[in-house]
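Handout, tutorial session.
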Amino acid sequence: MNNHSITVWKVMQKIALEKTWNQDYANDMFILWYLHDIGKQFGYMADHAERWWEILKRSDYKYWQEVYYHWCVDCKYHSEELDLLNTADLQVLQDWKQVTVKERLDDIWLRYGVDSNPYKDCKQLAINLNLL
């Protein structure tokens, strides 16, 4: 696991515990965090979610849709867990540092440009989550 992924997990756990004070739920969010980027561990950066959701669905993993739809800006599927995953991901830089959503957007803007899909998607996702 890279530092970015570990920090996303820490942010998810903090939000989950603040929201519910339920350790079982926080543990479920740990598993979701771990699975959401697992495709990256096998070298599938661009489509890491798409490569694993079908396996998770066949395995009856209850959050397979969250894995599939994370970072989806125009999907019709919605859940608290998906919001939690995306909110945490929007607050962590690639180098592991936890930041504001605005700082994350600035980082993506500097790396990819204001007209890039990563920047546009990140900004729209933050708007969809009412984080901007």
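The second record follows below. Compare its token runs with those of the first.
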Amino acid sequence: MKLRRHDELLRLALINALAGKAHKIPEGGQLAWGWFNALCRTRTNSGYSPNPLSYAEIEAFARLYRWPMEPRHIDMILALDRAWLDDAAKRFKAAQNGSGGADAPPITKGALSAIFGG
């Protein structure tokens, strides 16, 4: 999937939010940000790691909430999901290596508020 500049800015905002850094959701990205956060709250887990969001979950969400999502919206959600999963994998690996997450900053209250609103 080739990311457009807007999608890349949205992905970078999520990476910064997860790291507890200042971030700005790009103009026009607020809906995709909200959709991703809503979908992320219902994410399943394999027992070892979180599962990626599926097309079926995204489609069901759009249908249930009557959001007219276009392919570009799905690309935004999937770009955010990839960044989220990469961060989760980095944190899991740091915990497994016993580094205490030294290379992965802790998820702070501010980061959670930035991601999930509040």
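Points raised in discussion: The chain is about 60% helix and 0% strand.
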